Amino acid sequence: MSPRACAVVLAAPSGTGKTTLAHRLVGQSADYVFSVSATTRSPRTGEVDGVDYYFVDRTGFETMIEAGDLVEWAEVHGRLYGTPRAELERAASRGHHVVLDIDVQGARQIKQRMPDAKLIFLLPPDVDTLMGRLTGRGTEDAAAVARRLYSALEELQVVEEFDYVVVNDDLDRCLETIRGIVSGKVETGASGAALQSARALRREIGRILDEDYSEYTNANR
Ligand code: 5GP
Questions:
Q1: Among 26, 30, 115, 169, which is 20 to 30 Å from 209 by CA?
Q2: Residue 42 C-alpha to ligand 1 middle, in angstroms?
Q3: Which residues make Cβ contacts (< 8 Å) with residue 183, sequence separation at least 6?
Q4: CB-hemisphere CA count at 13 Å for 44?
Q5: Quick one: pLDDT at residue 219?
Q6: Mutate to test the pocket of ligand 1, among 39, 53, 130 (most ligand atoms within 8 A of CB)
Q7: What is the pLDDT at residue 3?
């Protein structure tokens, strides 16, 4: 990787607008490219193979693991996801910043293997925004929403491990902050306020799960 180019890892509970942010980051500047992951989950409407993901079956994914083709991989919501080594190598050879939209397990593995990677944890501004995005997807039934809320609870527990915590309250401001992090203008370290927001969010998600999704409690705990 050229001295200037870096790997930018974006992790967040689903419903934070992470994918939109990642695509905007890449769409607005030729300096950024997106790392297209491999996954065993089925394509959603409108998703294109090789653009949004490389859609592979389990056997294909396992072959990639055995061949050492994945820099990291993890099981998320019962499906396998991984970052192809070739995606990072291609970006590095061209001197591009590469944006990884991955889960917290993957983020940890990247940090171990690429200590210079910038790990950014994104937070939704509040629980209502999170719920709006989760239920507004239209592709998820209540059980799937409950599962994503449980995952969010777990993911929010590891916020402290990240180099940066950014609240996605305004898309443009958030993009500016991320560009500042990449260029070294924004200092490392999660602010006390950001960590407090993460804790408040966990409490709220816990309450919503108890009140509105209790029938799925046993299935998820
Ligand atoms: P979705 O199925 O909604 O596109 O993604 C589900 C979760 O898997 C998201 O948190 C997403 O960031 C994560 N994910 C996507 N690609 C990868 C990957 O290559 N590695 C890991 N560890 N997680 C990924």
A1: 169
A2: 13
A3: none
A4: 5
A5: 56
A6: 39
A7: 47
